[in-house]
């Protein structure tokens, strides 16, 4: 009898598989639910019915399966998503849940896989298809003014014969303080300090504050700032106060090149609190964005799946409104949108290799053509197949939803990317 059961239950399962009959149990090891030896999975919690010890092969098989639903559902999901727009959503909503991968998990999986493979291809080709830029060393470089990038107070003192012994002593002491505070002076600032008649060398913080009010040549620009006290800022409205504070911190950073927020706030005599330190620290982020825009763009692009994930509920609201007579729930409209976004990332994933070969990694020619020529047709067919309305109504709603998408996505993207930049 057991041999017959084994023969029926084995099917295509190999003798060493975790699903093999010889590893079956009469009780689920996860939830304790009673099982038959013919049960491959627990009918209560769905865990595989096996007592076999986990091997390395079994571990990676389960890992891959948990990420991309590594079974027949993947095959049906890919086939219907690519070639039957809208039908996959209709079937899933109608109750065919086990036939397809979970829409939310599949969307996140395919988008993350896309960025991983795109990054690997970029590292091999030496190009980045998404950024399509090549930043030269001249574009990246910036620093001190004509006095040179290698200028230091110590070298200035050692090479100057006109300085008095006390001046040299004061300058070397100043250099040690600046080093501790991670502050740099240009030669122009130092010359200006030495030209000042009234300098209190016993108060080096005062010397630093004096230097910070002097113009600092960065690249080819001379930048100065106008000090605004905390008391003056407090008299302004919330928006103007933060706008003026940001501009002041930006000008002060350009003028002094002081990156340490604590030193900067002390020089400006502003309150040393978390918000002011955070706002001042954004100067370094802005500096990185200005000098390496490609790196920042890549940083934003990597957040695209999460942006789309959080934008979907907003976009679904318009589907819910214009298709209110169809009796679909709000969540079912979201499933439809996730399937559309999944198709876009899947198409991008498929086009990665031909784009790398045809354009040598410099342009997304194949994907652009697919998105431009097939994208609108796919979206129209998906609307038609899922919502099943006549052509004229579908075309009108297609136009409206596209218009809403670009306006809504642009607005949401600006907010999302502003938040992302604030955390950069």
Question: What report would you give on this structure?
Answer:
By secondary structure, the protein is mainly alpha-helical. It folds into 4 domains: 52 residues, no CATH class; 184 residues, no CATH class; 68 residues, no CATH class; 67 residues, no CATH class. The chain contains 19 helices and 2 strands. A two-stranded antiparallel sheet has the order 1-2. The longest helix is centred in the C-terminal third of the chain and has 32 residues. The radius of gyration is 32 Å and the shape is elongated. The N and C termini lie far apart (66 Å). The N terminus is likely disordered.
What keywords describe this structure?
single chain; 424 residues; mainly alpha
Average residue-wise pLDDT: 75
User: Class by helix and strand content?
Assistant: mainly alpha
Query: What gap, in angstroms, lies between the N and C termini?
Result: 66 Å
Strand content: under 5%
The number of distinct structural domains comes to 4
C-alpha Rg, in Å? 32 Å
Helical region count?
A: 19
